[in-house]
Design brief:
Bound molecules: nicotinamide-adenine-dinucleotide, zinc ion
Order of helices and strands: EEEHEEEHEEEEHHEHEHEHEHEHEHEHE
Radius of gyration: 20 Å
Structural class: alpha/beta
Helix content: 25-40%
Length: 367
């Protein structure tokens, strides 16, 4: 079938919305009609050429939500009409990692996905007979996409898809970091660095875990206001003195849990240093630049602080994204404030501009 999709043609240039051919789903694959897709930093990172593993031509986009239209042979977990959220972090439920509760890093399709192919090593996207590659296994800047069944979360048909798409990436990442990776304990003190989509999700996650104090640190007063809306009990404008201020705010010890959601290694260091001696856990969510390292004074670890990293909030994606959506539907998570702009597919580059200007939290493309 013919679809319109946003293609990265040459890095550093705007995405081009083009007509492409989308082939039928093969065994284990699903054709999804997209309803909405968020515009995320990772798309821009690749479009700009900053990602050393980027390739072109490819259809970008990974924060998708839509409706299953057709399924390939052997697909049993979804059927036409089901509402789904796309998952760059799949869950095959069979590999060594999927069977282990300690990780969500499914091993089933990593290599092919990283190179822009579906699990059988080919693409369903093409243009004049030439293959066009997929991106993050999702390629959701498109009217429709073909994806592996193991990369789709079937969600409540009640959930409006224009907001459900936010659970495809940053929001779930933040929620999961607090609820799943750190498993924040009731009554604890938490610090969240960064109040973008990921940090705001972490604030909401700490609240859902019944933290007593949630201190959010950001450079933007506007974003700190959003953090208060998600349950931050205190806010702080970040900077070089943040650790000193946080230690003082927490009786000289630091917080039980800290979260980093900026991607800045200096802030990651602050997250480690503002975690409490004895048991403080610092969870890193941000993606640092290539070659950057995190500086840690080893004594901080000997005296009981711990550091964890969290990919997609440690969520077993097909199992847990639907659960998070159910909590949203139950009124536990306020998603509306994250949806800042609604765009058409042709306006996808405007989504990048708004993001660079830090105008709002998420622009969402409506199909
Ligand atoms: N681990 C994962 O699976 C995963 C998934 C999605 C995104 N990410 C990463 O998480 C990070 C955050 O993503 P986002 O979409 O929320 O980004 P964002 O740019 O919207 O938010 C980052 C926030 O950090 C704030 N900030 C910058 N410097 C700061 C400082 N010195 N002190 C305090 N706050 C500061 C900014 O003001 C901004 O509000 C990025 O690095 C992104 O790549 C990771
Ligand atoms: Zn994303
Ligand atoms: Zn797996």
């Amino acid at each position: 079938m013919k679809i319109r999709a946003a293609v990265v043609e040459s890095f550093g240039a705007p995405l081009e919305v083009q007509e492409l051919e989308l082939a039928e789903p093969r065994a284990g694959e699903v054709l999804v009609r997209l309803v909405a897709c968020g515009v995320c930093h990772t798309d821009l990172f690749t479009a700009s050429g900053a990602d050393p593993s980027g390739y072109s031509p490819a259809v970008l986009g990974h924060e998708g939500a839509g409706v299953v239209e057709r399924v390939g042979e052997g697909v049993s977990s979804v059927e036409p009409g089901d509402h789904v959220v796309t998952l760059f972090s799949p869950q095959c439920r069979e590999c060594e990692h999927c069977l282990d509760p300690r990780t969500n890093l499914c091993l089933a399709i990593r290599e092919q996905q990283g190179q822009g192919y579906l699990p059988d090593g080919t693409t369903r996207l093409s243009r004049d007979g030439e293959p066009v590659r997929h991106f993050m296994g999702t390629s959701t800047f498109a009217e429709a996409t073909v994806m592996p069944e193991i990369a789709l979360a079937k969600v409540s048909p009640e959930a409006p898809l224009d907001r459900a798409c936010l659970f495809a990436c940053g929001l779930s990442t933040g929620l999961g970091a607090a609820m799943n990776t750190a498993k924040v304990a009731t009554g604890s003190t938490c610090v969240v660095f960064g109040a973008g989509m990921v940090g705001l999700g972490a604030v909401a996650g700490c609240r859902l875990q019944d933290a007593e104090r949630i201190i959010c640190v950001d450079l933007s007063e506007e974003r700190l206001e959003l953090a208060r809306g998600q349950g931050a009990t205190e806010t702080l404008v970040g900077g070089p003195d943040a650790v000193e201020q946080l230690v003082e705010l927490t009786g000289g010890f630091g917080a039980d849990y800290t979260f980093e959601a900026t991607g800045n290694v200096a802030v990651m260091r602050q997250a480690v240093e503002s975690a409490r001696m004895g048991w403080g856990l610092a969870t890193m969510c941000g993606v640092a630049g290539k070659g950057e390292t995190l500086d840690v004074i080893p004594r901080l670890l000997i005296t009981g602080r711990r550091i964890a990293g969290s990919s997609f909030g440690g969520l077993k994606s097909r199992d847990q994204v639907p659960q998070l959506i159910d909590r949203w539907m139950a009124g536990d998570i306020d998603v509306q404030p994250f949806l800042s702009h609604q765009l058409t597919l042709d306006e996808v580059n405007k989504g990048f501009e708004l993001m660079e200007a830090q105008d709002g939290i998420r622009s969402v493309i409506a199909f």
